[in-house]
Amino acid sequence: MSTQHEVPKALMVDGFRTRKSYGFGGLSKGATMVGAMVLVAEGIIGTQAPVTLLATVPVTLALLALAASRRHGMPAPAYYWAKVSWGRAARVDATSYRRVLLPHPYALDLPGVGASSTLIKAYDPTTGKSVGVVHDRARGHMTVTTLLAPGGSLMAPTGTVQSSLRTWSSVLDAMSTDDQVKGASVTIQITPGAGEALGDDVKARQDPHAPQLAKQVVDELVRTTPHATASVAPWMTVVVDPTAGANPPQELSDQVAETLKVVDSLDLSGTGTDIERRANDVDLRRLVRSAYDPDVFNARDAEFADLSWSECGPQAADDGWEEYSHDGGVSISWVLREMPRRPIAYSVLLPLLAPGRFQRRITLAYRVLDPYEGEAVLEREISHAHQRAQATAEVKGRAKWSQRADTQRAEQAAAQMAGGSQVVDWTLMVTVTARRTADLPAARQELERAVKATRGIRMRPAYGAQAAVFAAGLPLGYNPLVKD
Rounded distance, CA 393 to CA 401, Å? Predict the structure, then answer.
């Protein structure tokens, strides 16, 4: 017998909406304009040679129908173009990576989106400890990762959870008014079978004079623990442009100092999580290297201290259409397709965070729009929603109920922003890693069940972008929402 957990209305969240451009039918604004111009041109040509319309008009209508259709939540042209592009890359082995051992300083960089990154070991005068800073040499951005120790909120009073949500909103508000903060992400990595370290700790602390029954019970728990526990490693990564301030620093050391100053200004106290510490260079090497080779996750720090940044990546990797093979196994990554249109509980991601048979990494990526950009986006969305409803009403006599509801959601978002809320571009990414290719179907099934258990969140495989999404969940300085 099971009971349904009742979530108070005060802990329900909503306001999720996908950006939509104005166009005819399911077409985007650009596709509508291109289609209209093509049809006009065909009409002009048809006045001179009417027989050409028999061939050109059906082809144009078929292409417009293809442009209006969707595949796996994506516009069909975008999906098929990605498929063709990935196929071309695979034919020339551009989707395969093999690290070549070269002497310093000719060592190769990390593969893919991490190729322009390098690791800097910095000294933080505030804490007196070292901090690892990832520098994007191509764009000049710097990334600092903070190791977290989240506290449970399922048993917390409603008022405490509400306070945590309000405090996190204040953190996002601080990001929106700071031009140097380009984006952020929060990642939770669940690694099953972490009981070995617990067994060592219990053995070291066991009292030799304890009763025999107590020893037997503890030994039995230690024996079964590796099959029933998981190691949870959460962290927050902030991407900073240190040169976006009023007095941009020129020297690399000054840029690192400015980056640490910006990250320190983001106060996470009261958000339901505790700051363990800033990740140092060894922590970053461990997180990156153990993602590509999960077998080294519980290795000693000394084994990571001497690794170069390029050695933290894979020795070999193959970027498939729906999977990513690397040193210690094979991974599948899914991305957000659509959020529910109804209010959802604050604990909606709990099924994704529950431990399973395979290592899982859940990443929420953010880019907070500044107030002026957010207002412009919402006003444009309201105009597009009204135009779509009006166009449908002119053709069918009335607008669709879904269009009316979409218009109301756009207006509601504008009203919330006028009341002080912020507009946030965000996405959800999940990566599951299996040790063997034979376990890949079971890993995919486990992920599918976890997504379905959220009761509303829709996700899809990251078609042709498995390596990029895999890297987006790591502290490499890559955030897919940060464009500039």
Answer: 11
Is 367 in contact with 172 (CB distance < 8 Å)?
no
CB 273 within 8 A of CB 150: yes
Q: For residue range 163-197, list pLDDT tens digits in order.
A: 777 788 888 888 888 889 999 999 999 888 655 55
What are the tokens at 162?
């509400």
Buried b (16+ CB within 10 A) or exposed e, 416-443: ebeeebbbbebbbbbbbbbeeeebbeeb
Q: Alpha-carbon distance 242 to 387, whole Å?
A: 41
| Inter-residue contact 436 to 338 (CB < 8 Å) | no
65 DSSP 8-state letter = H
Question: Which SS3 state, helix, strand or coil, does residue 228 take?
Answer: coil
What is the structure's pLDDT at 305? 85
Measuring CA to CA, which residue among 481, 477, 429 is closest to residue 114?
477
Element (H, E) at 369: none
Instruction: Find out whether 107 and 310 touch, Cβ atoms under 8 Å.
Output: yes
**Tokens, residue 435:** 């040790």
Strand 273-278 relative to strand 142-150, pairing: antiparallel
3-state class (DSSP) for residue 380: helix
Q: Looking at beta carbons, which pairs linking 304-308 to residues 24 or more positions away fall under 8 Å?
A: 308/104, 308/107
Which residues, at least 6 apart from 203, have a Cβ–Cβ distance to it below 8 Å? 222
Which residues are CB-neighbours of 133 under 8 A, at least 6 positions away?
A: 119, 120, 121, 122, 142, 143, 144, 256, 259, 260
Q: How many CB atoms lie within 10 A of CB 415?
A: 11
C-alpha atoms less than 13 angstroms from C-alpha of 467 in its C-beta half-sphere: 21
Instruction: Give yes or no for a contact between 262 and 181, defined as CB atoms under 8 angstroms apart.
Output: yes
Q: How many Cβ atoms are within 10 Å of 188's Cβ, its own excluded?
A: 19
Residues 24, 391: Cα–Cα separation, whole Å = 8
Q: Which two tokens stand for residue 302?
A: 């000394």
User: What are the Cα distances from residue 375, in Å, to 50, 371, 387, 422?
Assistant: 49, 6, 18, 9
Tens digits of per-residue pLDDT, 58-97? 877 777 777 777 788 778 888 888 899 999 998 988 888 8
Separation of alpha carbons 62 and 77, rounded Å: 12
Which tokens belong to 133? 């800073």
Please say whether the beta carbons of 248 and 259 come within 8 A: no
CA distance 327 to 259: 33
| The model's pTM | 0.84
Helix (H) / strand (E) containing 225? none
36: its two tokens: 């209209």
Residue 152 in this model has a pLDDT that exceeds 70: no
Mean pLDDT for the stretch of residues 302-329: 88
DSSP state of 139: T
Q: Tell me how crowded residue 4 is: count the other CB atoms within 10 A of its CB.
A: 5
